[in-house]
């Protein structure tokens, strides 16, 4: 029954997509607004059908319908309910269904939210979304059917890969796919604006919400993936520059560039051509990741089985690339800049530099990822590049980008921006240098660490000074301090949301720098009741026991760690033996605080626990990455929220103009002077 | 305003040039040949340098001691094989018959590896075969 509902929904979804496309095209050709209305309803129906198909798969997973191959491959009866749900996206077919569902629902949300948008632009947006939705429906019907029947119906399924039985894995794929799916909408809006010949820049402002939301989902998705790798893969790292990881980083880099450059187009009518390219590239990179991992052209530790869907994706990628380039070429007159750049170190100049850097880094990561293919084509010999290749580029330019973030609030428009920037940055830079000196005095003499400390100090003081100045201006205007603070933040969600995101990013950079530079790893082999030393920590092995979990049994070691200051922690690393697989699975033990992570991976034991072997890692500042991620998410939410409080009396001077948006840039200029 | 355009182009070129320069420098240090064991054994030209090899762990002569964190095994591909000594933490999925990737260098007729990665398939291919049989 679920199979019938599922497959029927997918088939109908494909028809709905075709119908939406035809109706949208008809509405342009025949100038029939009614046809566009039909097309919108078709998109709505498509979203409903995808929901139905997803519901069918979810029901099958929860009920344990082992007549479906997907259910058999990824679940078992004893699997906890949470992981039965997570099995939805544990495999390729389910992941594609989830991705399709998200694109369809987001498309429907967008087209109904913008049902006022008539004529060519509205119809083009619907048509583009219909093509993408139709592609995914066809993909599942012809190449990756989640409802395919099992060859042999088994009494119980094969269970979920133990590596995937982790809370981070429940949330990581959906968030990543929300990000990927989200970038479809701004792309469609860009195509709509270009095809219809729209000359104003308001559409760019309208893409902002989707661009920020997608960016936020993608960021959190990537972070959760890193956290999962850290907790489950047992090598003590959160990022391995594996092709699969890089694939998600590529659209993030261009997406980050995009949220900055659309502001320049919105406010100054510049960078139009560049933005059109970025919208296309980001959307294409979202697809490229799937192509890369499923095509088998790149050897990855993740080793997905090569699959037919790669061909589908390649066709869509090539078609999108050719279409976007043609469109941009044909409409290049529409994309001419309205202003000239006034200063290199002004706001637009710095945003442009940010874009150049982020795109440059994206190209480097892309080349590194596909280097085995490039080298094979050039010399017939595969060459891989390791982490050192990426780190060499990312470390200096990551810090340069951080330094540019620190200048954020001090950047203004106009020809004397350079002078103003220097004046505003003197005090923050002094504080930054003092921070570096303070860190140096604690005994840390690594140049990268000191540079990172200096930038962190500069950024915090730079943002604080700006905030205090703005609050002071309002207090002078007669507000009480609390009201001044609240109204300032509420009146500038985008600005302070953005700054919060920057602070989160800076925390992550601190965490990455600290853990990257000062990690201590040691493989220890300890006899029962004895202890070993690592980096001032005393690691004592007490005993080894066996215990039973819901669908596994485990051998667990009791390790007592005494830190250099005398604090005592007990950790329980274990090796789990799942009922449904022959592979043992190491579950690391972690004790985390703001200064460092204590990470123990039980590798083996001999003679009934007389000796255990384990890897002990003292990893400084890792928690800063995760906390930074939370700060970043909060910042993203702030920047998306509309104004919450009614306008304060002091700002209600011109009731005829409710939203003085373009005036913001002027305010910024005066604030720093 | 032509002057500004030149400034922009020069700045962009400097930034991209710096990225490119570092990428090339990083390429030199991070550069590792990747091939299967058969190709490595067939021509000795890669014996002097660090390489990354993939192959299957042979069942004969497989020893893996967790206490000393050492594994001895033959890595095979297309009826060619190579003795490998690996030192380091033993991955969970490592056992005879697995497809693995090792990185290291030849030393005294043995391949000394310090990186060992097992291919963790997203599905249970082995398990599936079991059910079918």
Question: Can you describe this structure?
Answer:
The complex is a heterodimer of chains A (673) and B (133). Chain A has 673 residues and is an alpha+beta fold. Chain A has 21 helices and eleven strands. Chain A has helices at 2-29, 33-63, 69-74, 81-86, 92-113, 119-142, 167-182, 184-195, 202-232, 243-268, 272-295, 309-330, 347-369, 371-379, 387-407, 417-441, 447-476, 481-491, 493-518, 622-640, 664-672; strands spanning 383-385, 520-527, 531-534, 537-548, 552-562, 568-571, 574-578, 584-587, 589-592, 596-606, 611-620. In chain A, the strands form two sheets. In chain A, strands 3, 4, 5, 6, 7 and 8 form a six-stranded antiparallel beta sheet that branches. The model of chain A is unreliable at 654-673 (pLDDT under 50). Chain B is α+β, with helices and mostly antiparallel strands. Chain B has three helices and seven strands. A five-stranded mixed beta barrel of chain B has the order 2-4-5-7-6. The longest helix of chain B has 29 residues, at 2-30. Chain B is elongated, with a radius of gyration of 22 Å. Residues 121-133 of chain B have low confidence and may be disordered. The interface between A and B is large, with 67 and 52 residues.
Number of helices of chain A: 21
Strand segment count of chain A = 11
Helical percent range of chain B?
A: 25-40%
Q: In what order do the strands lie side by side in the largest sheet of chain B?
A: 2-4-5-7-6
Low-confidence stretches of chain A: 654-673
Number of strands of chain B: 7
Rg measurement of chain A, Å: 27 Å
Biggest sheet record of chain A: 6 strands, antiparallel
Strand share of the residues of chain B? 35-45%
Q: Largest protein interface?
A: A-B, 67 and 52 residues
Helix segment count of chain B? Answer: 3
Q: Which class best fits the helix and strand makeup of chain B? A: alpha+beta
Principal-axis shape of chain A: globular
Q: State which percent range the strand residues of chain A make up.
A: 5-15%
- Percent helix range of chain A: 55-70%
Largest sheet of chain B: 5 strands, mixed, barrel
Cα gyration radius of chain B (Å): 22 Å
Which quaternary structure do these chains form?
heterodimer
First-last Cα distance of chain A: 69 Å
Q: Average pLDDT across residues of chain B?
A: 78
Give the rounded overall mean pLDDT of chain A: 89
